[in-house]
TrEMBL record:
A Pfam family hit: Peripla_BP_2
Name this polypeptide is given: Corrinoid ABC transporter substrate-binding protein
Organism: Corynebacterium jeddahense
Source taxonomy: Bacteria, Bacillati, Actinomycetota, Actinomycetes, Mycobacteriales
InterPro entries noted in UniProt: ABC_Transporter_SBP, ABC_transptr_periplasmic_BD
Residue ranges occupied by any Fe/B12 periplasmic-binding domain in the UniProt entry: 17-319
Family named by the database record: Belongs to the bacterial solute-binding protein 8 family.
Amino acid sequence: MTDAAGRSLKFDELPDRIVLAEGRAAYATALLQDNPLDNIVAYGQDLEKNAGAFRDKLFELQPEAKDMPIIGMIQKGDVTVENLLAQDPDVVIMTLDQKKAVEESGFIADMDAAGITYAFIDFRQKPLENTTVSMQLLGDLLGESKRAEDYNEFYTSKVKDITDRVAAIDERPGTLVWTAAGYNECCAVAGDVHLGTLVTAAGGHNLGPEVLGPETKQITPEKLIELNPEKLIVTGGEWARDPNKTDMFRHVELGYQSSPELAEETCDGPLQFPGLDLLDAPKNGNYFAVYHQFYDNPFNVFALAAFAKWIHPQEFADIKPNQDFVDFHKKWMPFDYSGVFFYDPANPEES
């Protein structure tokens, strides 16, 4: 098998004790098997912290998984070799972001010394390059190689359709992705990674790298106003915990627990920061919201499609993001669709 770091791995037999160092890798395992947490023996705390509504979907399918160990967040240094060995893992799945962290901390050397086998996936740093590699790796590890191949064929075809159409368009509107808008202080912006790379592929001019460099960092509200992007995309999620108490933050409530009414009610939340009423994009119908977790899972191709529609509405008028995602769940996912993952306040019926 080959992982997202280009490393070759060999196994005498399929592993049946897998640790997901990033718990949100379960988005990928849910694509591959009817019981997404089969063969998973522990997962990272991020699944609970950042994608609680999705985790609830998994627990509805596999109630016994509620008792599965949570190992913490390896990139923050709160996981020990002893924590991992206690799970008796056949393989630990980490992300390329975690790879950088464990190399810099020396933790990966400790894992090597303990004889722990590990592999890397990536849906974040280079999503359009590494999603298919990561899906094939996970499919091979779970004995679902054909399922992974089928998804990769679907994924590649969908990406090609969009990028081929974009290639015939000359205009590149200035676009900014404000991540976790309203949940944290203004403003974390996508640079030349994850959703930022999708803006470029969707035919937008991603303004992020011009003010940030390659990584996701903060800019001030004043800088956002100065940039005044033609297209402004914010990411939203299930951070209110209780979707009926969305006033805890000023984010757009999106995800499996949301509804069209909640998305509409909360869509202006991020714009309540002082001074942001000066932005032109919301006034011109060029303000949009997308599910935050698309930045780090194999569903990123649906964010790509939505971005293409929002950035070039005439050329991609045929795309209906939410309906496409509903249809996707019917064919590919082991649980029913619920919620809202894309929201266009100017055209809510087409979201």
